[in-house]
């Protein structure tokens, strides 16, 4: 075992660096830390930087890489402020450890949360290198500057490399934050320009190590037959035939979870073998009698009706402005619409997989996880050890989309390794992936407006009902949590005098979790579709109408609403409708809205929203051919994500978001019959292929000095709505129930 | 005994002849560049070449490759510098990258048969390769770049 094994022996950061290296921790500086040699374990940093005496720079990537690029772009920020030569930077993937700060890679937060700490770490090290050089030369530090991996004394043209200065710098006092000088934007080498992914070559030649590729000596393979119905249990089983399969050594029952499910293993029977395929074959030969438990009466079509009934009853009021009921009573035209989005599965290409090695009361795991600290916490709880006894090595993730935040599959490997006394690799199939996800909630949404002059709403009611994510962790949780209701629901940006936002209760029958963009998938779909419906009813241009609804530039006042703002301070990151307007106008201009010549059964749709603190507006062009096939020749997306670190990766995220949105609209649907998930693989849970994806997605970035915001997720909601609005423009068919599936459009 | 060549090296296999080539490559030879996803031959993640033709290694049994020559991503070029791999890097195609050895192996086979592919040729050839990150537009761009076709 090559790469992974090396990481395991290193443990926490100190050992990565050779003696004499300058080691700094970002968050702990300057308050707590003193730079010194290899004593870093005494610090509590979020990110580490090491400069070796040969000039090698090591930056620890503490966030998980699943295609979004943060394993490269976060260290790149530090390298820029350090004025380091990127070619001499080596990136080391962090194990899980709270000393790195928040490692949970979700919420499109990597750049947003670590832009400043990374710059501080880089600037601190650079200043220390300058001081070390000045001391050596006996000159004032103010006469010295950094110049790509060297410190230069301009008056005498002397130069010293970072490696030559590392040992001396490590002995200096750590400067205070007030002493730091940050590079001006005009001197940025990498920020705003970008560098190719650190792993690019390895991804193209097969050498990159994903979770599926992890291996440790003496490892056995496990495939698990889970209860087909969520909450079911094994009544009895017969493994005689399974044990006949060549390569199968034994079976191991995994006990059912104690509700609420959280991240506990689902239970079932594991088949242990000396290779993956034998484990899969053995599993097929198991005979299991199940007690299907309380969810065996769950049918998703009936459940949909229940949600649709609940959504027509008064719900919990989340935001209330003016007087909506009076607004409706005052007359004007009343418009109502119901929308529905089904359960969705993340379906990353790499199924769930984990290697666990339990011995002597300690657990080591190697896994493609979004949150290694959660692995520590929950695996420890599952095994009855402390989280300090759990070492979690993070591999590359073959897609995550939120699924790999939930470490249930890692806990399975941990439980099995403890039980059989060997390292175990648990390998899920894609079928397991689809059938045993933490699904994005299905959601019924009800919209009602009283329409006045120019078709403009004078009163607006919106109500959503969906089984909430907290239900996976808290028994009897039935209402949405403020965080997810804040993704396009409580933060409704339209300028309407009488507004009420509600949420109704729903009980889950499956594990509900988050998927890329989460609640914005259904909430933005409903609001932005309804806006488009109102525009057409009024006979107005959807772009003009949307801008009219967004209204004048202003900061949304959400002080009377529980609104967590993605964990960011509202004064720093307020919802600014001016920025929403700007991306809407920009995308309309670039997409030549109203000017483009379109063919038969072709149309443009537009939508705009803010999510993960970014503003995104999207125009989708749809063409429906004579056979009824939908084509997407072009998508245009404008993004205001504040300061951009790597423009190409932002574009890539928006291109990918457009495809992800396409999959949701075309065929995204998980259903259940008698508690069993009906879908099983990419043939019946279809995701967009090359001919179904947008042919071309053009991305326009707003040039901004505002603090950076997230880009992994906010492109999806607007694209879903713009796609459906374009279908209406092209065909006159309004999509209120997702997905389109087999529905005929002509 | 099944005899085959993998990336030019002669190999013998005396296990279950029904075992798919994919697991032989991954678990026995530790050639993990070839990835598993759907396991039923519909997503293209596991493409390798068997006697020059792209096949789904996840549903191709060892007995069907007896006497055959297998090429995996590891054997495509000595330094990862096959023109398709170079184009992939230049266009910065991969996001998570998990499905891309399959994409690259399929694209190499396409260009062997159609050195100047049209959009339609590319769609037809690559339709069998799923990328959940959604890199299709760059896949198309990279194939055209590798082919020297003006994108």
Would you give an account of this structure?
The complex is a heterodimer of chains A (746) and B (151). The N and C termini of chain A lie far apart (56 Å). In chain A, helix 3 (110-137) packs across helix 4 (162-170). Residues 1-17 and 26-46 of chain A have low confidence and may be disordered. Helices cover 28% and strands 22% of the residues of chain A. Chain A is built from 18 helices and 27 strands. A seven-stranded mixed beta sheet of chain A has the order 10-11-8-18-15-16-17, sandwiched between helices. In chain A, strands 13-21-20-19-14 form a five-stranded mixed beta sheet, with helices on both faces. In chain A, strands 1-2-3-4 form a four-stranded mixed beta sheet. The longest helix of chain A has 28 residues, at 110-137. By secondary structure, chain A is of the alpha+beta class. In chain B, strands 2-1-5-3-4 form a five-stranded mixed beta sheet, with helices on one face. The radius of gyration of chain B is 15 Å and the shape is globular. The longest helix of chain B has 14 residues, at 100-113. The mean pLDDT of chain B is 97. Chain B is built from five helices and five strands. Chain B has two domains: 2-74, Beta-grasp domain (Ubiquitin-like (UB roll), Roll); 83-147, DNA polymerase, domain 1 (Orthogonal Bundle). Chain B is an alpha+beta fold. At the A-B interface, helix 5, helix 7 and helix 17 of A face helix 1, helix 2, helix 3, helix 4 and helix 5 of B.
Largest sheet strand order of chain A:
10-11-8-18-15-16-17
Distance between the termini of chain B: 48 Å
Low-confidence runs of chain A: 1-17, 26-46
CATH topology term of the largest domain in chain A: Aldehyde Oxidoreductase, domain 4
Show unreliable segments of chain B: none
Overall structural domain count of chain A? 3
- Mean pLDDT metric of chain B: 97
Largest interface: A-B, 64 and 59 residues
Largest sheet data of chain B: 5 strands, mixed
